Amino acid sequence: MATIASALGAGFCFSESRVGELKPNTHSAARSRRMVAVRAEAQSINPEIRKNEEKVVDSVVVAELSKPLTAYCRCWRSGTFPLCDGSHVKHNKATGDNVGPLLLKKQKE
């Protein structure tokens, strides 16, 4: 039976043995990765920048992009991070914040 390797938490590597118990995987230990989760739970991310605006969205024009428009997340809530999925709308309603995405726009030729 093959063992299934999985990473749990911040750099802990385990493999599933034949009887279903978890044991340290010595082969993956040397290559363990450190994961850091950043979440803005029930607090404002933007305490003072352009608070007079409903939503802070900045645009940057870039010469070489594969798509005409790419939105990057700045609320740290996106399920597709680093790309924006619109999660800032729920975050803004819950916290009274005004954070929005960074938009990269392809330069017109």
From TrEMBL:
Domain named Iron-binding zinc finger CDGSH type: residues: 55-94
Source lineage: Eukaryota, Viridiplantae, Streptophyta, Embryophyta, Tracheophyta
Cofactors: [2Fe-2S] cluster
Keywords: 2Fe-2S, Iron, Iron-sulfur, Metal-binding
InterPro entries hit by this protein: CISD1/2, FeS-contain_CDGSH-typ, MitoNEET_CISD
This protein's name: Iron-binding zinc finger CDGSH type domain-containing protein
Gene3D superfamilies in the cross-refs: CDGSH iron-sulfur domain, mitoNEET-type (3.40.5.90)
Top-level taxon: Eukaryota
